[in-house]
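re: ur question from yesterday

yeah so i grabbed the chain u mentioned. its 92 aa long if i counted rite. heres the sequnce exactly as i have it in my notes:
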Amino acid sequence: RRLREADAALEDAAFLDLGGRLARLLLREAGDGASIALTQVEIARRIGASREKVNRKLHDWADEGFVSLGRSGIKIERRGALEKLIDERRAR
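ran it thru and got these structure tokens back, copy pasting raw so excuse formatting
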């Protein structure tokens, strides 16, 4: 399992930009639900980005209605939009 996760992380780093990596992590962590209770620092560490860049991207997506941000964490509002974003980023 750990090897598969490491392979997926390397593939994401090679083929996805920040938005794609962030979307993939959020969808993976949410599973069938919609809420993610990770901190922005933990998210940034997992995708190899700075907390500031993660914060900016999350707020951009909140403005677009993809996610909502609250004290309890991040809630995915439009799962399909995040999945489409990953596909678009991978096609580049």
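noticed a couple things. The first strand starts at residue 35 and ends at 36. also The mean pLDDT is 88.
anyway ttyl
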